[in-house]
Structures are given as structure tokens and as C-alpha cells.
UniProtKB/TrEMBL annotation:
GO biological process: signal peptide processing
Protein name in the entry: Signal peptidase I
UniProt KW keywords: Cell membrane, Hydrolase, Membrane, Protease, Transmembrane, Transmembrane helix
Xref: Pfam families: Peptidase_S26
Protein family membership: Belongs to the peptidase S26 family.
Protein's organism: Oceanobacillus sojae
Gene name per UniProt: sipS
NCBIfam families: sigpep_I_bact
Single GO MF annotation: signal peptidase activity
Catalytic activity: Cleavage of hydrophobic, N-terminal signal or leader sequences from secreted and periplasmic proteins
Enzyme Commission number(s) of this protein: 3.4.21.89
Amino acid sequence: MENINHKKEWIGWFKAIVITIMLALFLRTFIFATSIVEGESMYPTLQDGERVIFNKVVYSIHEPGRGDIVIIHQPPKNYVKRVIGLPGETIEIENSQLYINGEAYQQHFLSDEVIAQTNNFGPIEIPEDNYFVMGDNRLISKDSRNGLGFIPRDDIIGKSELIIYPFSEFGWVE
């Protein structure tokens, strides 16, 4: 009798482990994933080497919004950038001021020093189903201005939600 109870206990543990692994794989495949920030293009918001969890479902429910920090899949790697311009808008940077459709846009997520160092750009109209992205460290960022170009909606695979490593930086992405 004791042997049967011992066997049932092992079967119970095995089932629990299998269910846990299947749940983890489901969440990783369809809901959340991680990405490592490479380089200093998003400094000071995100730093080189930080690991972030990104939400893969959010853009199934609604479209990316201005200010979102998104994960862009362009093989062979992923990029982490901030959405600045939406489909159909016109973007221009003149005398360090960002204009969207001719209206000055306040970039509250950047320091005055970074804003002052931003070079002139545009005006340029964003095609439908595309986005204009920039890194927060404007002087060194490879982004829509200088290499990535417009980002097709299908290349945006998620929204950065949470910094999980290093542990000292653990918290929500602003």
C-alpha cells in the first residue's frame, strides 16, 4: 500500500512539473518574452545589457502609441526604440524642436541637454502602416532618421514593460 501511495505522489509531481513547463512555454511563446538592450541608444531610459520583458499581446488589442518603447524585429536582431511618429504623420526636427504635423511636441522623456543636441531632420511623411522611431540617446541612436528607416507595423513585435535585470534596476519601463 505504501508503494502505491509513493507511486501516486511521484505521478502527481510529474504532472505538476509538466503543466508548469507547458504554461511557461505558452506564456513565453504567445504572451511575454525577454529582450536584451544592446548599446546606449536608449540611455538613460534603458541601459546597455539590461534585460526587459516585453508584452507580445498588447498590439493585437490596439496599435502602438506615441511614446511607447517597442521591440522591433529586423533580422538578425531586435531593436528597442521609442515610437515618435504614427502612420500618416509628418515629422520634422528644426533647431532641436520636434514637430509632428507642424505642431511642437514636448518630449518629456528626454533631458534638455539631449533635446538641444538633436540635429535637424525632415520634414518627412510616414507611410501608412509604418512608424517613425528614435532612441532616447539621439546623438548615437540608429533609428528611423539614419539606418532603420520607417518601421512596418508587422516588425513591431511587442511593448517593453519591465526591466528584470540587473536586479538593481528592476521596475516598470517609463
